[in-house]
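Troubleshooting log. The previous structure file for this entry was overwritten by mistake, so regenerating from the original sequence record. Sequence copied from the archived sheet and checked twice against the printout by T.R.
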Amino acid sequence: MRVACSTRSLTLAGFFLALSLAHAHAARLAVRIEHRWNGQPLPIGEVALRNDAGNELSVTRLAYLLSSAKLQRADGSWLAANDWFAFIDAAKQRTEFSLGDVPAGRYSAIRFDLGLDPAADKSDPAKRAADHPLNPNVNGLHWSWRGGYVFLAIEGRWRQRDGELGGYSYHLAGQACRGTIEVPADLDLSGNALVTLVFDAEKIFGAQHHIDIANAPSTHSRTGDDLAPRLADNAVRAFALARVEPDLRPAGKRSAVTLPGGLDVKIPAHFPQANWPADNLPTAGGVALGERLFHDPRLSINNSQSCASCHDPTFAFADPRPVSSGAEGQRGSRNAMPLFNLAWKPSFFWDGRAPSVRAQVLMPIQDPLEMHESLGHALAKLVADPKYPDEFERVFGSREITADRLARALEQFLLTRISADAKIDRVLRGDAQLTGEEQRGFNLFFSESDPAHGIRGADCFHCHGGANFTNNQFLNNGLDADDTRADAGRAQFTGAAQDRGCFMVPSLRNVALTAPYMHDGRFKTLDEVIEHYDDGVQRSATLDPNLAKHLPWKGLGLSADEKRALVALLRTLPDDGFSGHR
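Regenerated output below.
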């Protein structure tokens, strides 16, 4: 399965161009991957699987990158896609990719690489389009500040000898883990076709090499670690052809959206490209209107509370209270999340119930625990203002004030709140240097903890990697053991058992300004947060595997000096100009 690519290859683009000039026909080829376990559909999150080593386990994450797609022609040569990549995520049901338009004809095999070649692996992720498979916002597999990509990530929980659930985390990266997948397939591309492949995840643990989680719960592809290549060798053997069928679906197309010029919005070169709303691109007038609305207390029931009341610009648009209070003094249930770099977030609120900023901004206005106003009453107040109708006309073309226009103006303002000039950014640009203690904190932050192999680290980067120091996932970080009285987190929105106790991973940018911490503000200081991750994580059925894997060794075991170094690093993340602090 791990074979060298043929030298007799031609790019699809070049070959297709030649055939097009000769009026040749082209077919669209799509590929779908079905994830299974021992032939059955892979259940995400259920500790109901068993591998050859006898481990009882679950799979909570299975994500990987594919590249270098090729089709084998009848003469044995290979037709190669030019600059082709795909990202697959079983848990998020992202399981299909396209090879585009292919010259009509018969083909005998399909081939692609698991992983990336050295040039792509070392390429600048910030240059990738917002919807490109190698954009870190899309795949969550970039090593961020360390550089390079994870080619395959598989994580989950497993039942230990004492019956407790531990965690495993396998991240495969580097050229030793790059492999070639070749699947024989009789493809008659006289028309559009859909190829369905099977990826049997059980074989990751035992196709060629048997993997016992009890003795090897973690790998991050370090030099000299032979576990990752063995897992990669197993993974490329896990693919097989299921079926080939005509594809009668219409082709979907997406156009790139870029932020218009003329706005005072500075996005640094190391940030990935964001997916701006094509139907509501910010304008200077729209941003100004949204800012005025954000600070207007008339959006609340008694004209006493604005959006800024719980998202104070002085604290990086966060709330310094453990939980926010409503316009009528009612106590909320969660701490208000800070508002910055929202263009890079896929969903909003701690539980992700809002799919866009536009949807999010209208919810607090109507929430009985927050501003507690009806949209009708709020809009009537804006209509009665002598200035608002003119402002709405300048932005939207008429004096009409609607809930949709209110939401769009607020969205334009909030999407342009960019925080990207912290000390850590200046270090990256070469305009500043970390102190010795900050550098030690940086090294700890981006190093895994693996006491079984004598490796010390704080393992923060799994959840807080990337330019925005978050993976934008919903995870259980061990605040509470299984307890029906605790906040259900995302499960309160989805109703799914595997989401219980899971919350959006917040960005650590400006973290020194956004205390208190966690969804309920239970920790007052950064020191308390680090103590939690060092030795305070509680076991539960949905605990993130990257935390559960530390519990057999009773947490991270950081020294006092290491904890101070982590705090020192976190204090390099505030953007004073953005927050309002001078």
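The chain has 18 helices and 18 strands. Archived copy saved in two places this time.
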